[in-house]
Amino acid sequence: MKKPPKKKNKKKNVTSVIITDFVFKKILLENTDYAAKIISWICNLEYEKVIKGHFIDPNLSAKKAIEVHRVGDLIYKIDDNTYVDIEAYNKYSRNTDLKNLDYQNRAVSRFSVTMDKRGKKTYNTDIKIYFIAMYGSSLKSMPFINHDITYSEGFNNSQFIEISYVCLDKLETIKYTKGKQEIYEYF
Question: Contact, 169 vs 139, CB < 8 A?
Answer without folding.
Answer: no
